[in-house]
Amino acid sequence: MTAHAQAYLDPGTPEEQSRRQFLANATLAIGGVIGLVVAVPCVAALIPESLVKPNAAGGPVWAPLTPAELSSLRSGTDTPVKIDINFKYQDGYLPPSDAERLVWGVKLTPEQVATFQKKRPDLFKPTAKVDYPAITLNFVLFSSICPHLGCKFDWVSGAKRFICPCHGSQFDVVGAKLAGPAPRGLDPLPFREQDGKAEVTWIQYKSQTPDRIIVAYT
Amino acid sequence: MSFLVTWLDQRTGLPTQIKTFLTEDVPGGASYWYVFGSATLFAMILQYVTGIFLTFYYSPSSATAWESTKYINEHVPLGWFVLSLHYWGATAMIALLLMHLLQVLIWGSYKAPREIMWVIGILMLVFTLVLGLTGYLLPWDMNAYFASQVAINIASSVPIVGGPTQQLLSGGAGMGTLTINRFHGLHVWAMPALLALLVTWHLVVFRHNGSAGPPVDTDLKKLPQGRFWPNQMFMDALASFLVFIVMVVLAAVAPPPLDVKADPTQTFIAYPAWYFLALYGLLRIAGGLPDSVIPIANLMATVIIPGGFVTLLILLPWIDRNPSRALRRRPWILGLTAISVVVAVGLSVFSQLAIVREQQEAGQAKPAAIASAPADAGRALQSGAKVYAANCAACHGADGQGKPGTFPPLAGNADITGDPSKVVQIVLDGLNNMPMTVSGANYKGVMPAWKGTLTNSDVANVVSYIRSSWGNEATPVAPADVAKVKK
User: Which residues in chain B have their CB less than 8 angstroms from residue A200's CB?
Assistant: First the structure.
């Protein structure tokens, strides 16, 4: 013991020693309680809203197609139409803004409508959580994001199929997977028409899974 | 366990250092009079911790400061509580700091050989007040803006250097986004770093000098010695714990209100933080004097008296030539201390009353009542969000977008951000075939009445919520306003 710490030279009576032990334990206990009470809200505050409420956006956000876009969709033949849609989008505390997303619109022929369920059984599974008719009014709209690793794929008219430039996944005109590492076919987007106005919802799906899982509506 | 301690000690020496730090004498025995220093340190550490978690969300710009603060209150799990702890922690830290100063002053512990500790302490007081000032601006609501405007105006009224000082503080000719950045840099980085250095120095010098002990003139070594660990530390921990309990209770029941976003075009009578009320009081008195005297009176109130006071404090160990520490032998210093405390408290009370009176005359809600409509903006909006999700979102959409042609949007809807009593009326009584046009689209105007289902409080909260969500920025509504509409 250092010489200047006079108080520590005399160990004191057993009562004094046990009292000191109690004070030491109590001090540490107080520290522990304070630490815990502070740690709980601080750690809770770290959790992003998207973990607490998966649909922080509250659900599907419908964005309208312009009349020009709708008519280009309607007049499409067997070539898919690329549509640029502005979706309302809220990033954190920033004011709502428009996020531009690319959407592929495919007009289905009567035969394609008839065979659609057979060609894309994955869209008709009872466990499919997306609440939309897979084909509406003979249109199906696909997300432009490849379900493999998130690249934007393109329609190659020569090959008459969607081909992703990143790792070579290929899909036919109704989005069924033909080749490549993608775990599933193209992801559809809910589409509806009301009073002559057409609307689509953007959905971000989880990549690399064979099942279709919604991550967010933004 | 002791093996680990030995291992660490051989390689770093840290356990021995901690043990040396803890096993110190307290001349005259451990005492509850000595807890204020460590309690201040405790409050400071709490500010650092809660502050760090706030920086994960706060964004310092005029476009995002208020919005991100609102986000913390409404969207971050227990974010409102972390912010509330930080707000009340600031009050606690400054209150404990002042009590620590008073205790050291009365005990005469600033005398030789502890003069440098005292000077470091006064510097830390100044830096802590800077922290309080800069933090106050960051939410960028009406009160934050106008209170900081007052503070910057005070600085700018200093002769010769006033103009450049005002520009330096504001980051420009007037207050704006650059001001927020500047204050944020000071509040989050510069001041905390400097303060941490000074606290460390203060503690190191404290160990070098040893505890000052009781206010007596006997040789400290001849007094019975108490143990720092665990006796004094237990008292320190208990005092900090009591402070903590009070802080947690206050933080839980009285979170700081977030006014509407700063609007420089409005008039708003701000209330400064309580620790600046005395300074503000001096200014009000100066402003109330005859015109011919005002320039010199302002100079007195802004520079000479506060500056002189701080200078006197810093030089106190050398001004006070009395070598005695005994209370009965130091009537002058004790008398001056008592007078200073009475004057400071008196000025503060005078200031607060004057501000409240001015706000009432301007028809502005009282400081406490800005929060009372609703009682605390954060939690009332949370409740409003819940009411909305349960009752309104089905038609108007979780994001206030409505259904085109069927249910009007609430986002960007001028009727929603307009006259609040109209909005309350619609929520209470519904709409029965009242064709309307919103944002260029026509609606049939059929909506159920909610007055049977929702309480006044629910209606107030949900109306406040829709008036401040999805880009809407309008004033909140109080349950009293709903009751008025019902009549």
Answer: none
Q: Closest-CA residue in chain A for B405?
A: A195
Query: Do B399 and A34 make contact, defined as CB atoms within 8 angstroms?
Result: no
Which residues in B330-355 are b (16+ Cβ under 10 Å) and which e? beebeeeeeebeeebeebbebbbebb
Does B404 contact A33 at a Cβ distance shorter than 8 Å? no
Please state whether the predicted TM-score (pTM) of the whole model is above 0.80.
no
- Separation in Å, CA A161 to CA A134, A182, B314: 20, 14, 81
Q: Which of B71, B78, B235, B406 to mutate to test the interface with A (most CBs of A within 10 A)?
A: B78
Q: What span, in angstroms and rounded, lies between the C-alpha atoms of B124 and B381?
A: 38
Tokens of A20: 């000191």
Pairing relationship of beta strands A191-194 and A197-201 according to DSSP bridges: antiparallel
Collapsing DSSP to helix, strand or coil, A200 comes out as strand
The interface residues of chain B toward chain A in range 363-392, judged by CB-CB distance below 8 A, are 389
Q: Classify the phi-psi angles of A202: left when phi > 0, otherwise alpha if psi is within -120 to 50, otherwise beta.
A: beta
Print pLDDT tens along chain B (487 aa): 789 999 999 999 999 999 988 999 999 999 999 999 999 999 999 999 999 999 999 999 999 999 999 999 999 999 999 999 999 999 999 999 999 999 999 999 999 999 999 999 999 999 999 999 999 999 999 999 999 998 898 888 777 888 898 999 999 888 999 999 999 999 999 999 999 999 999 999 999 999 999 999 999 889 999 999 999 999 999 999 999 999 999 999 999 999 999 988 888 888 889 999 998 899 889 888 888 888 888 888 888 999 999 999 999 999 999 999 999 999 999 999 999 999 999 999 999 999 988 888 877 654 433 333 334 556 777 788 888 887 888 788 877 888 777 788 888 888 888 888 888 888 888 887 777 777 777 787 778 888 877 888 888 888 888 888 887 888 888 888 888 887 7
Nearest to B382 by CA among B322, B443, B469: B469
User: Which of B236, B241, B392, B468 has the highest number of chain A CBs within 10 A, making it the mutation to test binding with A?
Assistant: B241
Of B20, B46, B75, the CB nearest to A38: B46
Angle at which helices B177-185 and B115-137 cross, to 10° = 150
Query: What token pair was written down for B144?
Result: 């934050």
Distance from CA of B225 to the nearest CA of A (A): 5
Q: B397 CB near a chain A CB, below 8 Å?
A: yes
CA angle A30-A36-A40, nearest 5°?
A: 155
Give residues with Cβ within 8 angstroms of A149, minimum separation 6. A166, A167, A207, A208
Taking only residues 241 to 270 of chain B, the set having a beta carbon closer than 8 angstroms to any beta carbon of chain A reads 241, 244, 248
Q: How many A/B residue pairs have CB atoms within 8 Å?
A: 120
Nearest Cβ partner for B234 among A23, A34, A195: A23
What residues contact A47, with CB distance under 8 A and at least 6 apart?
B77
- List of chain A residues whose C-beta atoms are within 8 Å of the C-beta of residue B46: 38
